[in-house]
# Entry
Amino acid sequence: MARLFACICIAALLALGGCDDDGGICDPGGPCECEGGNDCYLACQGSGCIESCHHQTNCGGVCDDHCRFECHDVNDCTTSCGDFCNASCHNVVSCGAIIGSDSTYKCHDTTRCGVHVVGTGSTVSCDHIATCEVVCEGSCEVRCNNTDTCRVYCGGPDGSERLCDDGESCGC
Amino acid sequence: MGASGLVRAALATAALSAGLTFAASASAQSTIQKYGARPSYGVELEPHMTLGWIDPPGYGTGEGIGLGGRATFEIIGHGFIPSINNSVGIGVGADWIHYHGDGTGPRGECIAWAPGPAGTRICTEVSGSGNDDTDYLWIPVVMQWNFWLHRKWSVFGEAGAALRFDDMHDLGFSPLVMWGGGRYHFTDNTTLTLRVGLPFVLTPYISLGVSFLL
# Structure
């Protein structure tokens, strides 16, 4: 009986011990995810990263060009990405983002959404948001639907301010 | 089959094999109905290995491995069921588990923030190694209910609560943790002890060690 019990225990140990010894590196194109827990921030270097955050207290991602980022079901979510970025943030308390040129950022079902576009030719959409603010350093397009306040600053944070009406496509 | 599947299969096989083998030979040396036919001890000291067999509750993913120990003090020699050989103890432990991660949770801490529009602040730089290794320290306090089945075998259930140090720095609390376990008695007072955390109450680890009934 003792041998049987020992063999069973050793088999269980071996089954566990042989796995997951490679750690995890966040590479472009590979999975890069935060799920569960309190604060979690992702970093991925190189073109074509795919990052996601969900069911966290606070979460965020930093990545380079051609990055895809999705965030939902957290309190505060932040994104900082390069050019040709495609990011979305929804069902959170606040979304904050810095995006580069020719990027797309979608916010919906949040209390606050603040996006700083440091390049040109990017599009930001806000849907079902209390306050949506977008700062554009260069040209940009902003679309707001079902927002209480939709505000665009052209030329930087201290630039001219525009209030956008619901459904209106505005920008700089 | 993944590691978790193998472990579950191994445990299921263990339970079945142990049950069948035990049933075949148990009757001759059964002690479950003989009150007092068990080791006399005041404290059970149990150093053990720990195995995280499902994802931890916070940071990290995958399976983990570590070390720990448990001290269980007998508080009721004749347990809650008068007709059988059972006893009750209070146990306190410390269990460290290291998780290698599975590559889906590379994460660090934000070390640089920039103010953003609409009162937001935006993380612009993340520290860390870019991997999802993490460590946990569990400090459980449990009630242990023992059933002294046989001269060579005893089983127990444990329920209680646990403090956790997630990633070794975030204090967490698990209001309900539960284990089921068994001992093989090498001698009356030295046993091989296996304890399996119950996943449905988010007790994500197993321990295997040697108990000294002192």
The helical segments of chain A are 2-17.
